[in-house]
Amino acid sequence: MQSDLFSSVSGVFEILVFNAPYLREEEGEPKEEAEMLSGGKEGVELSLRFLEEAREHLDKKSSLILTASSASNLELLEKGISNLGYALSGKISKSFFMEEIYAFILSSKRQGPRI
Question: What residues contact residue 95 under an 8 Å CB cut-off, 6+ apart?
Answer without folding.
Answer: 101
